[in-house]
Amino acid sequence: MKIRLLFLILLSAFCINSITAQKSNKKITITGTVMDASKGPIANAIIMIDDQKTNSVTDSKGNYKIKVKSTASKIGVFTFGLGTSEEAINGRTEINFNFGTTSVQKAAGQTVAPGEEGVNSGYGLVKKKNLTTDVNKIDGTNKKYASYSSITEMIQREVSGCRISGGSVVIQESKDLFGSIPALIVVDGVYMDDLPEIPPTSVKSIEVLKGTAAAIYGSRGYGGAIIIKTKIQSE
Asked: How many domains, the chain?
C-alpha cells in the first residue's frame, strides 16, 4: 500500500511539472499590418521580439504573422529607411504599426538641454533618460579610460554582450541564416570595415547601439552599430 501511495504521489508531481512546463512553453500567434504615413503597406519589414530579430517579415501587403512565447513582452518592427517601432504585447494577438505616428520619429525632434546627457541613437541626439532602446555610451573624457590599452579593451570591459575578433564586433550574438552579423562601425561619420586602432586617449565617446537602436542605418545596422567620435574631430 505504501509503495502504491508513493507511486501516486510521484505521478502527481510529474503531471504538475509537465503542465507547468507546457504553460511556460506555450506560444501565442500575433498578426498585424505595418503601414507608412500614407497608409501604404511596408513590405519586408523585420519582426523583432524583445529586441531580438526573427526570421519573420511582412509580405507585399504589409501583413505579418508570428508565434511567440507567452512570456514575450515586446514586439518591434525593423524597416529599411523608416526606422523602427515597438509595442508592448500585453496579451494582444493583433498589433498594427503605423509609421506616420511612431514614437521613434517623434524622438528625432527632441533637443538636449545644456547639462543633460544625450545619446546619438541614430535618430538624432536623444536625452539618455528618455531612451527606450538598448544603447550604451562610453564617455572617453573620463580619466579612468586612459589606463586602457585600446578601444577594444574599453568596449569589452564596459559593454556587455560584445564579442570582438580581428577587429569585427558582434553584438548580442546577432545572427542570420548564414551566421554571425558584425556590427556597423562608424568613426567620425565614416564607415569602417574593422574596429580601428585608436588610442583611448583620443576618443571622445563610443556609443554601442543594440537591437532596434541601430535601425536608422538600414540593412547595415542589422547587427547593431558602434559609433566612435574622436577628440580630433571635435576640435
From this structure: 2
Report residue 198 as a C-alpha cell.
585608436
Final residue of a domain: which of 85, 103, 121?
103
Q: Please list, in sequence order, all residues whose beta carbon lies within 8 angstroms of the beta carbon of residue 65, skipping any fewer than 6 positions away.
A: 29, 30, 31, 56
Residue 152 has pLDDT above 80, yes or no: yes
Last residue of a domain, one of 103, 137, 158: 103
pTM above 0.70, yes or no: no
Residue 33, domain extent = 25-103
Distance from C-alpha of 119 to C-alpha of 208, rounded to nearest angstrom: 10
Residue 201: predicted pLDDT: 85
State the cell numbers at 141: 573624457
- Find out whether 230 and 206 touch, Cβ atoms under 8 Å: no
Q: DSSP string of 110-170?
A: ----TTS-EEE-SSSEEEGGG--S-EEEEETTSGGGGG-S-HHHHHHHHSTTEEEETTEEE
C-alpha cell at 228: 566612435
Q: What is the CATH number of the domain that holds 84?
A: 2.60.40.10
CATH code of residue 211: 2.170.130.10
**Which whole-number Å values give the CA distances from 222 to 63, 70, 154, 177, in the listed order?**
21, 26, 23, 13
Which is more confidently placed, 233 or 142? 142
Indicate the helix (H) or strand (E) that contains 191. Answer: strand 190-192
